Amino acid sequence: MRERNPKRARIVCDGDWGVSEGLIYENWVEKEFDINAVLSTSGIQTTFGLDFGYAVSFNAFIAVAVDLTTRTLWVWDEMYEKGMTNIDITKKIIEMGYGKEHIIADSAEPKSIYEIQSGFNIQVDHNGVKMFERISLPNIRPAMKGPDSVKNGIQRLQSFQMIIHPRCVNTIMELCNYSYDVDQEGAFTDKPAKEWDHLMDALRMAMEKFFVRARGRVVEAKGRELYEGPFRAPREEPSESRKCRRVVSTL
Questions:
Q1: Amino acid 196: pLDDT
Q2: CATH classification of 6-250, choosing from 3.30.365.10, 2.60.40.1730, 3.30.420.280, 3.40.50.720?
Q3: Per-residue pLDDT for 166 more than 70?
Q4: Alpha carbon of residue 245 to chain centroid
Q5: Rounded-to-integer distance, Cα 206 and Cα 49, Å
Q6: Are 25 and 158 in contact (CB under 8 A)?
Q7: What number of other Cβ atoms are within 10 A of residue 212's Cβ?
Q8: Is the pLDDT reported for residue 159 higher than 90?
Q9: How far is Cα 153 from Cα 156, in angstroms, rounded to an integer?
Q10: Among the listed residues 90, 98, 161, the one whose alpha carbon sits nearest the alpha carbon of residue 119
Q11: Contact between residue 22 and residue 179 where contact means Cβ atoms under 8 Å apart
């Protein structure tokens, strides 16, 4: 417990109840549920978020079902791994069954979003015959970033009842430890500490589509749009023009 949930360990093992004061989310429960039954309910929508990492930070992907009427969300699947290339991320999400879903990803990684959206040629073995297959996440798009977007996203999530499936152990781990930062005098600020935040960022980004009316684009330096959000597949471009692309997000 001390390794995975240090804040909870200080409460349970050491009796330090004050440590819970800084936790950002307390509006959640760990509970078994049948995601197929949830998704069969009228009005339920799904959304998916991806936060990039690599050697030190985790690549975090989260799958969420949302009922806006009752302000309830269900987290039913996750990815939480270090040291993944963009090809690895693409393959893993496809293997998980979410290759065609609309995924909202960290706009701080424009090159990664473009590469994953455009796709990769990988070598596969079909009955002993070596062939190339193209894989991509065509519906990935950048998250919107604006003034106080993190703070506002947190406040919106705090208004939901969050139900976390027990198999999403890393989401539970982060929820148990994700807390507000403190200033030099030891008082809590309104900003989250930069730790235990990979799946929390992915969750916040996944939920933005329900609250933010905005557009995300992958464009060339010359200004030609290859992707125009929120949910349009990229257009094919001649290979010689595949240079200097970036992601821009506007509110």
A1: 92
A2: 3.30.420.280
A3: yes
A4: 22
A5: 4
A6: yes
A7: 18
A8: yes
A9: 5
A10: 90
A11: yes
Q: How many Cα neighbours within 13 Å face the side chain of 46?
A: 16
- Cβ-count burial 164-202 (b if 16+ within 10 Å, e if not): bbeebebbbbbbbbbbbeeeeeeeeeeebbeebbbbbbb
Token couple for 221: 């330096």
The Cβ-side half-sphere exposure at 62, using a 13 Å CA radius, reads 33
Say what the alpha-carbon torsion angle 145, 149, 154, 158 is, to the nearest 10 degrees. -110
pTM summary value? 0.78
CB 162 within 8 Å of CB 174: no
Task: State the Cα–Cα distance between residues 32 and 28, nearest whole angstrom.
Answer: 13
Nearest to 121 by CA among 112, 109, 132: 132
Residue listed under structure tokens 């959304």: 47
List the chain domain ranges. 6-250
CA-based torsion, 47, 209, 54, 85: positive or negative: positive
Nearest to 234 by CA among 135, 141, 104: 141
72-86 residue pLDDT tens: 999 999 999 999 999
